[in-house]
Design goal:
Helix content is 49%, strand content 1%. By secondary structure, the protein is an all-alpha fold. It starts with 9 loop residues before the first strand and ends with a helix.
Length: 373
């Protein structure tokens, strides 16, 4: 390389560049420091971008699905299954673009009608923030509902999350197609429907507009005769008792369920003791115990057959907790079948002296009086 110190340009054989004659090469240490500074500047810029991205993707920023609107018309089990399958397709992108919000909404629709798998899947999405906002409080209710129906994975999760707190979420509340609770019904008609004095009249129109249905197919004549004779002692319509027996045991006096419900009216041992049944497998004692329990439930829920039947199947505690028919597929089908078999009757006379009214109904009546929901 040729250099001259008189202010003229020199050429560099190594670079091919013309440099000022007074140019002094930069020390190696200075070049290294400049490179380190450039790297640090670039790293700081990338960190700032990453921080902004983290701020934009938080649990709070994830979408929270809105509760689906009420369904139009009656919903059958096959429709509930279709909703669950559509939800799974949206959740996992099976043949369709993934959409967590739509998945959650379809799961919610199925969960309201008692689909345990949909309840579990929606709870899992809420617990793990799978594309939607995390909500473990709501998830605890959903896991509990699925666990109460025997879902094994939900049972494990429900044990981990503990007892749900607060009211059940909208995805577990009774669908709008369910008959209204007594607190929201019309004032009672002027005529008394109770066969004897001492009780409140049912606040429903007379259930005897249609003739009582005949005994269920296959009902043994001796059981039919016993019920027709004894049911009036418990202020029960015989056709209602026969319809319950049909659904509970199909008139098998030796029937025992996986939950240890026994006999014609499928009493569990605790209920049998509660209503003073000494021999749960004795047909007469079993029938009397079941009728006593049904009479008690009708008084508790003030003649609302849907609630009384749901409580007979799932327990009165579940009806109180969910403020209506619980979100269990079995219970919803049980109530639907019995109501259909007794010509759509939804009310029954009751004796208020048998049991105080449900706390749930008392609360709802108070809220209705104050204009609250």
């Amino acid at each position: 390389m040729r250099t001259h110190r008189c202010g003229r340009l020199v050429d560099s054989a190594s670079t091919g560049l013309a440099l000022p004659v007074d140019f002094e090469p930069m020390p190696a240490l200075a070049q290294l420091l400049l490179r380190i500074a450039a790297v640090l500047l670039l790293a700081g810029s990338m960190a700032a971008h990453a921080q902004l991205a983290d701020q934009a993707l938080t649990l709070e920023s994830l979408p929270r699905p809105e509760t689906p609107p009420p369904e139009r018309g009656p919903v059958v089990p096959s429709q509930v299954e279709r909703w669950r399958n559509e939800a799974r397709a949206f959740e996992y992108g099976e043949g369709i673009e993934r959409d967590a919000v739509k998945a959650a909404q379809f799961y919610c629709r199925a969960a309201r009608y008692g689909d345990a798998e949909a309840q579990y899947s929606l709870a899992w999405m809420l617990t793990n923030a799978r594309g939607i906002e995390r909500d473990e409080a709501q998830a605890a209710h959903l896991f509990a509902a699925a666990a109460e129906q025997g879902h094994p994975q939900a049972t494990a999760m429900a044990q981990r999350l503990g007892t749900p707190l607060g009211e059940p979420p909208p995805c577990l509340r009774p669908p709008d197609e369910d008959p209204p609770l007594l607190a929201q019904s019309r004032p009672p008609p002027p005529r008394e429907l109770l066969p004897r004095g001492g009780g409140r009249p049912s606040p429903f129109p007379s259930p005897t507009l249609l003739p009582p249905p005949p005994p269920p197919a296959g009902a043994p004549p001796q059981i039919v005769r016993f019920v027709e004779l004894v049911a009036p002692e418990y202020q029960l319509h015989p056709h209602l008792v026969l319809a319950v027996i049909k659904q509970e045991s199909n008139f098998d006096p030796l029937a025992v369920s996986p939950k240890n419900a026994q006999g014609l009216m499928q009493l569990i041992p605790d209920t049998a003791r509660r209503f003073k049944v000494r021999n749960i497998m004795d047909p007469a004692q079993n029938l009397r115990g079941g009728m006593a329990y049904l009479q008690w439930l009708l008084a508790t829920f003030e003649g609302d057959l849907s609630l009384a039947l749901a409580a007979y199947n799932a327990g009165e505690g579940a009806v109180e907790r969910y403020r209506g028919i619980p979100p269990y597929a079995e219970t919803r089908l049980y109530v639907r079948r019995i109501i259909a078999s007794i010509n759509g009757q939804r009310s029954h006379p009751f004796d208020a002296s048998i049991a105080p009214p449900s706390q749930m109904l008392t609360l709802l009546k108070a809220r209705a009086t104050l204009g609250l929901k």
